[in-house]
Each structure stands twice: as structure tokens, then as C-alpha cells.
Design brief:
Structural class: alpha+beta
Mean pLDDT: 94
Helix content: 25-40%
Radius of gyration: 11 Å
Distance between the termini: 35 Å
Shape: globular
Low-confidence stretches: none
Length: about 90
């Protein structure tokens, strides 16, 4: 299963707006994408509530996993999104 590890660039972490943007992008891939941090169980990346429940902060590393055709490209896109400031401040 392809995976990517990325450091969160948004100053507010994966909360509110950045989590919503990421979750929408994950859902748009049409793939089963999961997100995990440290020793936590992976959560459904297309669920904003699941993503926010991880409590991921600025500078923390997360791991993305996906299965299916186009998974590598989808993970590259999602990783780039997380590695970019998303809160516009």
C-alpha cells in the first residue's frame, strides 16, 4: 500500500479550515485514503471530524495511505496540500 509521511505546514495544524480543505481533497480522489499520526489508529481522511479528532498540530508528521489505481499520484497531491500553509495567515 503506498504511503507518504509529511510535516503539517498550517500554523493551526489540521483544525477547521485546513482539515476541511484536506478532507474534501481526500474524498475527491475516490480512493480509500487514511491518515495517522504517531501511534494512533488510522482514520478516514475524507472525514473532517475524524481528521480533526487526531489533534494534529503545526510541525507534526502524519502518514497518509491509499489503495487503488492512481494512489501514488493522489498521495503526492494530498501530501503537497498538507505541506503548504492552508489557513492564509
Amino acid at each position: 500500500m503506498p504511503s507518504r509521511t509529511v510535516t503539517i505546514a498550517s500554523r493551526v495544524g489540521l483544525h477547521a479550515r485546513p482539515a476541511a480543505t484536506f478532507s474534501r481533497a481526500a474524498a475527491a480522489t475516490g480512493l480509500a485514503v487514511t491518515l495517522s499520526v504517531a501511534d494512533s489508529a488510522p482514520v478516514n481522511a475524507s472525514s473532517i471530524l475524524a481528521v480533526m479528532s487526531l489533534g494534529v498540530g503545526y510541525g507534526q508528521s502524519v502518514t497518509l495511505n491509499a489503495e487503488g489505481e492512481g494512489a501514488d499520484q493522489a498521495l503526492d497531491t494530498l501530501a503537497a496540500l498538507l505541506a503548504t500553509e492552508q489557513d492564509g495567515q
